[in-house]
């Protein structure tokens, strides 16, 4: 019987595949760092897991009928040898000890190392089968997860390109695994468009639907489904006609993506030779990879909020490792790290007191950091330590005054001095920039420019604060309009201030990542844009095919009186028709 | 510590099944046991280490045992290798 379910599409893609339901019994491998005193207990936990896995195999061997299957016996014996292998056990233990990582993670890493070694061996006959190693290791992982193996225990398959995964909710760690296994599509019962998994799905271009109630009960294992992200629909058991229609649609969508990617290798110049700069927004490891592969000149915005959204505050070392991982992934291209900017999200208990009556206008961004000096120092130390490994810039959010910058700079200097005492030498010229996202900051941009090394314009907040509307309020969100003349005038004046003081101005809100409004920015002379990696190809095409001079003339005319005659929408239409795609 | 050169005489060399037998035999002893080939030295109680040696027939290996029962360990391993791991040829 065919039927349809509805939810919220977080990407506009289409997926066709068989349902795999991720029921709570399945394993995901957690990865985290350990406090020093947790290392020895963790090693014991690992040893116990190995010996319990081995005991499980032994009990299976004991049950094997002597007449039945030498192959099964040999296989189990081979697995037992693997589980007692010092190259696996001792090496994993020393990883736990030296890298201070949890047992599961150490095991994953050591297994990868061994598999790489075996892959290098040319002779199939001599080489250990990859599956043997994986199956044996999965027994240990099950023990570590306190979900001992059973004979019917299932796991997430390795190849998911034909699979639409259905889950209650997905975390970022799980998303990373699923993305690596090239899952075709995702359906979750819970979660919203801004949950971590949704943001990641957008950035990884995985078709995904969130908020599909009872999907786990209503969809059966192995059933064929169509996931239509554009209409937010799941079509279960479709007939051949519908399948054919969607296969064509999917193909067209994939062709478009491929077409767009070709623009990534083109030089960043408009048709009239105006150079522009594309940067990436990235928080998590796969996003850094994708930005680098898309050829960005750097990371314009690394948000750090996700580090703080757990149950407790992150320590300096875990932050340092996250920042350093980003720095190293960009291989010498600069990354701009924005200090903590929580406001209204789910916060760890230690920060719950910051929830005022209106989070958007409350203790957030730089205000929170300056109010909690220890928290700020900890983050700055982690950023400065990471800056030793490659070019880093610090970005201060929610500025409204010069004093905030001076206080923040003093905090940076104190941390730098303290680090020098510990033998860590940080570049004294490390650039410190500010977010221009409040009307106040925009209006005193000239003053702020004297204190800052660069500007970064957060258009989402700037538009909301300037037009005095909350976008999530359906009664007024129609007023949200990036082409509002007040916005354009303010953007231009920020750009002019940057130019007068010879500092760079980057736009990192949604306006930068939209192919239509990117031309509006080009017309305003804002040519440094930062956006999520998935949006880079379309914006690059839009700018490569734009006539910058023509865009400037259209925006100039609009701002010098034209806005009385034509709407912002007509301006956007004109900007995007002004040059034909050749 | 004892050190002895030994030549693989079975046709297939240290393939998967032979390696398993070698590791199982080595694991019965307390001594530390090492096999060296071409300057690469592995723990004889590690199935993956032994497989990674990828030693073919006719190859000369260096066997090293060290510990209380090093004599017995050396004798058992030599016997196993000389008997071609129980294979027909």
Gist?
With 582 residues, chain A is of the alpha/beta class. Helices cover 46% and strands 12% of the residues of chain A.
Q: How large is the count of helical segments of chain B?
A: 3
For this entry, what is the oligomeric state of its chains? heterodimer
Side-by-side strand order of the widest sheet of chain A: 1-8-7-3-4-5-6-2
Query: Compute the gyration radius of chain A: what is it?
Result: 27 Å
Q: Mean of residue pLDDT of chain A? A: 86
Which spans of chain B have pLDDT < 50 for at least 5 consecutive residues?
none
> Helix- and strand-based class of chain B?
alpha+beta
The residue ranges of chain A in which pLDDT falls below 50 over 5 or more consecutive positions are 150-154
**Strand order in the largest sheet of chain B:** 1-4-2-3
Strand content of chain B: 25-35%
Q: What is the distance, rounded to the nearest whole angstrom, between the alpha carbons of the first and last residues of chain B?
A: 32 Å
The helix/strand order of chain B is EHEEHEH
How does the overall form of chain B come out from the CA principal axes?
globular
Provide the gyration radius of chain B in Å: 11 Å
**Terminal Cα span of chain A:** 47 Å
Taking the sheet with the most strands of chain B, its summary is:
4 strands, antiparallel
Instruction: Label the structural class of chain A.
Output: alpha/beta
The total of helices of chain A stands at 22
């Amino acid at each position: 019987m065919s039927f349809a379910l509805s939810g919220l599409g977080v990407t506009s893609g289409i997926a066709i595949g068989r349902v795999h339901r991720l029921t709570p019994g399945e394993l995901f491998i957690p990865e985290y760092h350990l406090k020093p005193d947790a290392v020895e207990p963790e090693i014991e936990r690992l040893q116990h897991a190995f010996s319990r896995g081995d005991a499980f195999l032994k009990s299976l061997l004991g049950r094997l009928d002597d007449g039945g299957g030498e192959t099964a016996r040999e296989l189990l014996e081979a697995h037992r040898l693997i589980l007692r292998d010092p190259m696996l056990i001792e090496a994993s233990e020393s990883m736990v000890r030296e890298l201070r990582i949890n047992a599961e993670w150490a095991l994953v890493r050591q297994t990868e190392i061994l598999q790489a070694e075996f892959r290098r061996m040319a002779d199939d006959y001599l080489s250990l089968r990859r599956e043997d190693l994986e199956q044996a290791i999965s027994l240990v992982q099950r023990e570590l997860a306190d979900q001992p193996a059973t004979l019917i225990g299932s796991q997430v398959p390795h190849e998911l390109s034909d699979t639409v995964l259905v889950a209650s909710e997905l975390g970022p760690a799980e998303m990373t695994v699923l993305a690596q296994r090239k899952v075709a599509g995702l359906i979750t019962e819970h979660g919203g468009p801004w949950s971590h998994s949704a943001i990641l799905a957008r950035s990884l271009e995985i078709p995904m639907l969130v908020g599909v109630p009872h999907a786990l009960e209503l969809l059966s294992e192995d059933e064929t489904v169509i996931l239509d992200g554009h209409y937010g629909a799941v079509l279960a058991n479709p007939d051949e006609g519908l399948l054919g229609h969607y296969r064509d649609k999917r193909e067209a969508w994939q062709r478009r993506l491929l077409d767009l990617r070709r623009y990534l290798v083109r030089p960043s110049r408009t048709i009239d030779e105006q150079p522009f700069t594309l940067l990436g927004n990235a928080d998590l490891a796969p996003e850094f990879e994708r930005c680098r592969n898309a050829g960005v000149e750097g990371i314009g915005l690394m948000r750090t909020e996700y580090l703080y959204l757990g149950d407790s505050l992150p320590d300096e070392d875990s932050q340092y490792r996250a920042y350093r991982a980003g720095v190293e992934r960009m291989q010498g291209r600069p990354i701009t790290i924005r200090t903590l900017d929580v406001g209204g999200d789910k916060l760890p208990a230690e920060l719950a007191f910051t929830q005022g009556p209106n989070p958007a206008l409350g203790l957030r961004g730089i205000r929170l950091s300056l109010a909690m000096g220890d928290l700020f120092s900890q983050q700055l130390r982690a950023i400065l330590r990471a800056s030793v490994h490659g070019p880093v810039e610090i970005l201060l959010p929610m500025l409204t005054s010069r004093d905030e910058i001076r206080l923040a700079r003093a905090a940076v200097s104190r941390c730098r001095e303290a680090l020098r005492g510990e033998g860590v030498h940080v570049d004294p010229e490390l650039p410190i920039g500010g977010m221009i996202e409040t009307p106040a900051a925009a209006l005193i941009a000239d003053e702020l420019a004297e204190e800052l090394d660069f500007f970064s314009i957060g258009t989402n907040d700037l538009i909301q604060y300037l037009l005095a509307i909350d976008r999530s309020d359906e009664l007024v969100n129609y007023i949200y309009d990036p082409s509002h003349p007040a916005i354009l005038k303010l953007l231009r004046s920020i750009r002019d201030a940057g130019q007068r003081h010879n500092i760079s101005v980057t736009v990192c809100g949604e306006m930068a990542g939209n192919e239509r409004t990117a031309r509006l920015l080009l017309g305003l002379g804002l040519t440094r844009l930062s956006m999520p990696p998935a949006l880079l190809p379309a914006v690059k095409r839009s700018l490569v095919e734009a006539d910058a001079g023509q865009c400037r003339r259209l925006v100039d005319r609009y701002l010098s009186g034209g806005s009385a005659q034509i709407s912002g929408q007509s301006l956007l239409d004109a900007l995007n028709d002004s040059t034909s795609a050749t | 510590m004892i050190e002895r050169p030994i030549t693989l005489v079975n046709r297939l060399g240290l393939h998967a099944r032979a390696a398993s037998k070698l590791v199982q035999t080595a694991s019965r002893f307390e001594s530390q046991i090492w096999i060296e080939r071409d300057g690469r030295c592995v723990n004889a109680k590690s199935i993956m280490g032994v497989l990674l040696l990828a030693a073919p027939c006719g190859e000369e290996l260096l066997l090293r045992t060290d510990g209380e029962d090093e004599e017995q360990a050396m004798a058992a391993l030599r016997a196993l290798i000389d008997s071609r791991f129980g294979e027909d040829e």
